[in-house]
Amino acid sequence: MLYSVRGKLIMTSESAAVVECGGVGFHCQTTINTLKTLKLNTEVTLFTYLNVREDAMELFGFATKAELDTFKTLIGVSGVGPKAGLAVLSELSPERLAMAVATDDVKSITRAQGVGKKTAQRIVLELKDKLASSLSSDDGFANVSAGAVSVSSGNVPKAVEALGVLGYAPSDVTPVLATLDSDLPVEQLIAQTLKQMGRQ
Predict the structure, then answer these.
(1) What single-letter DSSP state applies at residue 156?
(2) CB burial class (10 A; 0-12, 13-18, 19+) of residue 157?
């Protein structure tokens, strides 16, 4: 319903930002990582997610499309609500979360406030299951052009797997990864791919 809000940042708190658009202040719950990128009294754009419940309507805002997409993926995990999703993304960037899931790093996820070991294990398990099903239903590497740099070398396969955790199909990310240096650290490959995907 609401894709994004753009306007003057008039207030922030520990977990929210208020963006004034056309005289209306939109209260967006957000992550610490997004708040770090915002500056009061400047024009900002937040990518939004509207959560509608029986007793409330909550608006969530994120500095990047990648963070919004990761948030939506997280709250799709059973037992993980918006509050836990914000906590995880306040502790881990989308790239680091993808790496944590791909490498079964439950400990990193439990550093998020209010996220216990069982919840972290569920996040890893369910996101890995989503990755497995997307790989089996997608022809993946076949869509990369013949002239592209090999995407089976260096850290690229790990980056493809980690990006799959975030819901990106191999056929979508491999053309982007093929243009990058395969010897870059996995986290950098993920970050640069997400940046380029956000521009499309």
Answers:
(1) H
(2) middle
Q: Compute the distance between CA of residue 136 and CA of residue 24 in angstroms, rounded to an integer.
A: 46
Convert the pLDDT of each residue in 16-37 to its tens digit: 999 999 999 999 999 999 999 9
- Tell me the pLDDT tens digit for each residue of 169-194: 888 888 888 888 888 888 888 888 88
- Whether residues 106 and 73 share a domain: the answer is yes
Residue 42 CB coordination number (10 Å) = 8
DSSP helix/strand/coil, 12:
strand
Final residue of a domain: which of 128, 150, 172?
128
Count the domains in the chain: 3
Using an 8 Å Cβ cutoff, are 145 and 175 in contact? Answer: yes
175's CB contacts (< 8 A; 6+ apart) are 143, 144, 145, 148
Q: How many residues does the chain have?
A: 200
Mark whether 76 and 51 lie in a shared domain: no
Q: Please state the three-class secondary structure of 116-140 as a single string.
A: CHHHHHHHHHHHHHHHHHHHHCCCH
Decide: helix, strand or coil at residue 200: coil
* 109 vs 96: CA distance, rounded Å: 10
DSSP label at residue 166: T
Q: Name the pTM for this structure.
A: 0.73
CA distances from 72 to 50, 85, 86, 110, 178 (A): 11, 8, 10, 19, 27
Is 135 inside any structural domain?
no
